[in-house]
Design goal:
By secondary structure, this protein is an alpha/beta fold. The chain contains eight helices and nine strands. The chain has one domain: Vaccinia Virus protein VP39 (Rossmann fold, 3-Layer(aba) Sandwich). The structure holds S-adenosylmethionine (SAM).
């Protein structure tokens, strides 16, 4: 549980980037949001690994290394007092993995209230707020690290720029990610639909959009059973 110096930064609903709070009513992103908030999202949440051990076992089976191994490789040198925000935290298993590594100040936002309830049942009082990545309810640069794990791939290409901008706005130092990789941005069939998942080169998307970012580290990891590749990246704001 976060210690008293690690309270969730005050939600700052007055923060609105241009377009950040734009209505979603008829957009494809609204469709995806409705999916995640509905039965589709609840089923995903029930399927998702519910413990760090289960997640590590899944990664070991899929990639031949655990998520904890990857996390140590990328964040092992970071100050344990770093404030870390996950966008799209689901039941909080990534946050719990970071706590297990010794990070005490971890927070999440998630748009699915069912996942937030499950997170609290599973891990106790995790600092999780209900919000979307299009409009993070925090002031600028309040976190040391903002990250996604399998979430940028679910943002509609029309809105991805806004989500990247929110992540860039709220981090003081690092952006960390783990996403499906492809040289070219393209839809992937997911649960019978082609409007819920896109793979791409998210590292390049950040670097092309924000000139104050530099690549600290990147690792592409191939699935053992097929030719698909995931990528972990760490970007830093230049000093
Ligand atoms: C594939 S899951 C990944 C969960 C978690 N990050 C992990 O690695 O286990 C995607 C999560 O992102 C959430 N999500 C999708 N779009 C979102 C958005 N625009 N804002 C916030 N959360 C979102 C979904 O509800 C879901 O919990």
């Amino acid at each position: 549980m976060p210690n008293s110096e690690c309270q969730m930064p005050d939600e700052d609903r007055s923060v609105r980037r241009k377009g950040g709070g734009a209505p979603l009513a008829t957009s494809s992103q609204q469709l995806a949001t409705d999916y995640w908030r509905g039965e589709f999202g609840r089923e995903y949440t029930d399927r998702n690994p519910q413990s760090v051990e289960a997640m590590d076992a899944l990664y070991l089976n899929q990639f031949g290394l655990t998520r904890t191994d990857l996390n140590r490789e990328f964040l092992g040198d970071l100050d344990p007092a770093s404030r870390i925000l996950e966008l799209g935290a689901n039941v909080g298993v990534q946050l719990q993995a970071l706590r297990t590594m010794g990070f005490g100040c971890v927070y999440g936002v998630e748009l699915q209230d069912y996942a937030i309830r499950r997170a609290h049942e599973q891990f106790g009082p995790l600092a999780l707020a209900e919000a979307t990545g299009l409009d993070l309810p925090f002031a600028d640069a309040v976190f040391d690290v903002v990250f996604t794990s399998g979430v940028l791939i679910h943002i509609h290409p029309d809105r991805i720029g806004e989500v990247l901008a929110e992540i860039h706005r709220t981090t003081r130092r690092y952006i960390w990610g783990w996403e499906y990789y492809a040289d070219n941005y393209a839809p992937v069939s997911y649960r019978g639909r082609r409007d819920l998942l896109w793979k791409g080169n998210f590292t390049r998307m950040y670097l092309e959009r924000f000139s104050d970012l530099e690549l600290v580290k990147q690792k592409r990891v191939k699935y053992l059973a097929n030719e698909n590749v995931d990528v972990m990246f760490l970007l830093g704001k230049k000093a």
